[in-house]
Design goal:
Elements (H helix, E strand, L loop, with lengths): L2 H19 L5 H15 L11 H9 L3 H10 L32 E6 L6 E6 L3 H20 L11 H4 L4 H11 L56
Helix pairs in contact: 1-2, 2-3, 4-7
Length: 233
Amino acid sequence: MNIDDRDALIRYDQLASRVYSEHRMPQGTRDLILALGWITLRDPRRHDPSVGVWARTRDVLNVDNKRMWELIGEDAPRYEHDWHSDPKGCQAPMVRVDRLCGRSTADGFTEADRVTGRFRLWGFCSRPRCRDYGKTIYQRAKISNQKAPEPIPNHGGLLPLFFSWNWEAKYRKAAEVLPLMGSWEPPSYGLSADEWPPVPGDEPVKTFPKLRLVASGGQSIASDRPKLVAVKG
């Protein structure tokens, strides 16, 4: 094994270790990153300019084109609210008991955070006291929703941590192919999860050292391939 192959092996091991230690990474994204890492660093055909990265990745994963776009679309950076995390039932406080009302809600609305843009769901029952309490929060929420910034993403943005590629174009293409993605637009905070502002309670994503794909002769391969580049800082 020559020095270049040994170095590539070490870098691939580092990539795999980082991927498997990232517990927030969905299985599909993990499989795609490992496949791209293999093609970039270990695949015997990695220096063949006639081998397209898309076709080769599809072959390694044994999937069709639709599944390839689904894997990329699943990593599109976005904010997704966890509706299951919101309190259930009427959220007006009881007068003589230290708990919330909890009755079935008759009215509901969302309130956005003025710092993160993320929102929560409020719900109140039909009792006059609870409805009056809800009206006060509703007026506050109307102002907050108008002044809140774009929500900070909480999903996706992992592929750009490992590979430098035209991910915006890839995500847009995935949105064209996959109707469920709707009219996806890149968040103003950036495509990479390590660019997003920190949010209390969120564990920050750690950047993986990225590398550069080179040909056997030492020249960079000038083709539409994902590249691993030097880590920031």
